[in-house]
Structures are given as C-alpha cells and as structure tokens.
Design brief:
Blueprint: H1 2-18, H2 27-43, E1 51-62, E2 68-78, E3 86-92, E4 99-105, H3 111-122, H4 129-144
Helix pairs in contact: 1-4
Length: 146
C-alpha cells in the first residue's frame, strides 16, 4: 500500500510540473541537488554559480511518542529560467538528525535520472513514508496553484 502511495504522490508531482512547460534536469543538476548541496552547507561554500534556490515549504510531523520528522522542498532555478531545473527534497528521517537529499527532476529528464530518483524514493519505508508522502502532497498542491 505504501508503495502505491509513493508512486501516486510522485506521479502527481510529475503531472503538475509537466504542465508548466518544457524543462529538463541535467545529470550535473541532479548530482548537485543530491550531493553537492549537502557539501555546500557543511562546508559553508557559496551557492553554485548560475543557480539559486527558492524555498517552497517545510512540513513538520510530530508523532505521539515525541518523534518529529521534517521535510523541506526547495526549487532549484538556473539564472534566467522561469521553471525550476529540479526540486530538492531535504528529508529528515531519523532521531539523530540524518537527512536525505532527494532530487525530483523535471518531467522531461532522462530515464537515468528518473531511475535514480525512483531508487531513492523506494528506499523510504515504514513510518518514514507518511511524512514524505505528506510533503509530496503539499508540493503538488503548491504547484497546482501556480
């Protein structure tokens, strides 16, 4: 059931983002979102030249046992572009503050990039599925209003 929910949520985001026009996430952008941004934050480096992030939203889910999960979404824009190159999902999934950096690529991106995103989303299991899906639902709602 949770696999179906993940697939539905990811599909919904893809459909909404594809209605905005043609754009494609490059492998360089995918790697920056999934790896480079974390290094940038940890090392205090400047933003990747020619790009900017715009915060979309952050959600918090508090469980009855006191555990809290956070999911942040940020749109990566290349200078001069009106559509985001990709969406960054920063997902806190453990009590020790560990974060996963997931790239939601543009609809027209390569199969290789989509397969990588699928593998990362498929790895989210158990109680971690709900906050991630809730975040995707909010993201889809955000883009449906644009």
């Amino acid at each position: 059931m949770k696999t179906v929910l993940r697939a539905f949520g990811a599909g919904l985001v893809v459909v909404i983002m594809s209605c905005r026009g043609y754009a494609q996430t490059t492998l360089e952008e995918y790697n920056y979102v999934t790896k480079g941004y974390k290094v940038q934050l940890e090392s205090g480096l400047d933003m990747k030249k020619g790009y900017r992030f715009e915060d979309i939203h952050t959600i918090h889910i508090q469980y009855s046992d006191g555990v809290e999960r956070e999911t942040q979404f940020k749109a990566l824009f290349k200078e001069g572009e009106k559509l985001p190159s990709a969406i960054l999902c920063v997902y806190s999934h453990s009590d020790d503050g560990a974060r996963d950096y997931i790239c939601i690529p543009q609809f027209s991106s390569s199969k290789e990039i989509w397969d990588s995103t699928y593998a990362r989303i498929s790895a989210i299991t158990g109680d971690n599925t709900v906050p991630f899906m809730w975040g995707l639902a909010k993201l889809a709602s955000y883009y449906s209003m644009k």
